[in-house]
Amino acid sequence: MKGSFSIVRQVFQRRFSTLRSWRSSSARSLIVSPSSTPSQIPRNSSLPASTFVASNFSTTSFPSTRSLCSSAGGGNGVVIVKSEEEFINAMSKAEGGSSPSIFYFTAVWCGPCRFIAPVIEELSKQYPDVTTYKIDIDEGGLSNTLSKLSITAVPTLQFFKEGSKKGEIVGADVAKLKNLMEQLYK
């Protein structure tokens, strides 16, 4: 047991020596507990005293749940599809020609999806007669449907007008998205 303790101690010593040698930029800050005063901050710290920020965590309110989804969703012509049944209904509307539609295939973990989401939301406001269906590829029950549609990358946008698929964009190409929207739905 004594040998294990010395290994742990060596690991901590390496970690702390790395921290001591780290030089901070002026943009970084260290959060100190509200009860700490500048005199309690160790003098051997390599950070200048001006970078220390006191914060009172007891009055900070944090949301009980947090959404990792991109911002486009729920309103302004964007309909979130959560089940295979909802997806089949939306696809039948698009293929039936009842309304022009965009199918936006996305994922919570996808950076480009989060990048393009505000653009999609803006365009859905600009084209209110076009319904945008947002489909999270990781949503349960949609894997069979997605494999039939050959969705291999996100973000993927499929454009429907007059009952047929008129275009598809794979990736977060904002210029291509705006141009295609203008061509199809203006």
Describe it:
The protein has helices at residues 2-21, 84-96, 111-126, 143-148, 174-185; strands spanning 30-32, 52-54, 78-81, 101-106, 131-136, 156-161, 164-170. It starts with a helix and ends with a helix. Mean pLDDT is 73; it is low at 16-38 and 45-71. The protein is of the alpha/beta class. Strands 3-5-4-6-7 form a five-stranded mixed beta sheet, sandwiched between helices. It has a two-stranded parallel ribbon with strand order 1-2. Helices cover 36% and strands 19% of the residues. It contains five helices and seven strands, in the order αβββαβαβαββα.
What structural category characterises the helix and strand content? Answer: alpha/beta
Shape: globular
User: What order do the SSEs take from the amino end to the carboxyl end, as H and E?
Assistant: HEEEHEHEHEEH
- Order of strands, main sheet, comes to 3-5-4-6-7
Helix content: 25-40%
* Number of continuous helical runs: 5
Keywords: Cytoplasm, Disulfide bond, Electron transport, Redox-active center, Transport
Domain Thioredoxin: 41-186
Function: Participates in various redox reactions through the reversible oxidation of the active center dithiol to a disulfide. The H form is known to activate a number of cytosolic enzymes.
Protein name: Thioredoxin domain-containing protein
